[in-house]
C-alpha cells in the first residue's frame, strides 16, 4: 500500500545537494552570452585535468579499427565523412595546430545508426569514458549536474492548461574546453592523421552535456519575455 501512495503523490520540489549546488555555481560563474546569442560554457571539472594520462594511442588504435570497417562498408565511410564535413562547415570543429596538446584528451569515436531519424541516419558518438594511461577518463573528472527537467506529471498538467501545444526538436543542440575534446581523423588511409578540436558541447558521450544544454535553455527562458 505504501508503494501505491508514493506513486500517486504529487512530486515535491527538488532540493539540490552540495555537489549539485557546486555545479550550479560553476555554471553561473563561467557562462557567457555571446553577441551571436549563443552561450559559451566551461566544463565543470571536479578535478584538475593533470590527472588524465596519455589518450592519443587509444584514440589512434580506435581510428585504425574504424578504417578496417570502412574498407568493407564503403557506404558507412561516405556517411561518416559527410558527418565530419558537416561539423566542419558549421564551425563545430577546426584542425588543431598542435598534434598533441598538453594537457589534452582525445575522444575515441564510432558510428551509431538510427534509420527512423528524419534528419540524420548516422550519428558519430564520442567516447568520453575511454580511460587514459592513468586510468582516468574525461567523464571521471566532470560533474554530471542535477536533472533540471520537470517531472512527466508536471509537463502533462501544464500541457492541458492551453488550447494549443507546440513541440519541437533543437537541431544540433549539444555541440561548445577545447583541448579536452580532441579527435583523430582522416578521410582516407593514404592521408596523414589530423588532430581536430571540437568547438562545441559534445552531447554524444560527455557526462556534463545534458545539464549544460538544458541549463542554457532554462537561462534563455529567464532572460527572454513572452513578447
TrEMBL record:
Q: Which GO terms describe its biological process?
A: DNA biosynthetic process
SUPFAM superfamilies for the chain: DNA/RNA polymerases
**UniProt protein name:** Uncharacterized protein
Amino acid at each position: 500500500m505504501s508503494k501505491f501512495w508514493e506513486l500517486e503523490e504529487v512530486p515535491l520540489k527538488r532540493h539540490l545537494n552540495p555537489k549539485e549546488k557546486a555545479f550550479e555555481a560553476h555554471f553561473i560563474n563561467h557562462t557567457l552570452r555571446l553577441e551571436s546569442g549563443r552561450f559559451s560554457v566551461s566544463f565543470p571539472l571536479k578535478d584538475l585535468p593533470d590527472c588524465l594520462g596519455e589518450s592519443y594511442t587509444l584514440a589512434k588504435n580506435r581510428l585504425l579499427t574504424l578504417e578496417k570497417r570502412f574498407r568493407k562498408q564503403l557506404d558507412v565511410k561516405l556517411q561518416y565523412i559527410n558527418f565530419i564535413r558537416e561539423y566542419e562547415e558549421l564551425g563545430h570543429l577546426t584542425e588543431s595546430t598542435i598534434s598533441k596538446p598538453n594537457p589534452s584528451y582525445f575522444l575515441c569515436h564510432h558510428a551509431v545508426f538510427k534509420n527512423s531519424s528524419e534528419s540524420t541516419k548516422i550519428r558519430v558518438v564520442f567516447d568520453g569514458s575511454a580511460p587514459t594511461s592513468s586510468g582516468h577518463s574525461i567523464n571521471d573528472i566532470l560533474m554530471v549536474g542535477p536533472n533540471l527537467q520537470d517531472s512527466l506529471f508536471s509537463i502533462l498538467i501544464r500541457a492541458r492548461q492551453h488550447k494549443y501545444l507546440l513541440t519541437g526538436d533543437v537541431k544540433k543542440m549539444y555541440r561548445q574546453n577545447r583541448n579536452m575534446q580532441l579527435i583523430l581523423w582522416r578521410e582516407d588511409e593514404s592521408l596523414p592523421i589530423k588532430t581536430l578540436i571540437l568547438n562545441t558541447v559534445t552531447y554524444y558521450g560527455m557526462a556534463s552535456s545534458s545539464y549544460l544544454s538544458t541549463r542554457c535553455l532554462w537561462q534563455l527562458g529567464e532572460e527572454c519575455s513572452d513578447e
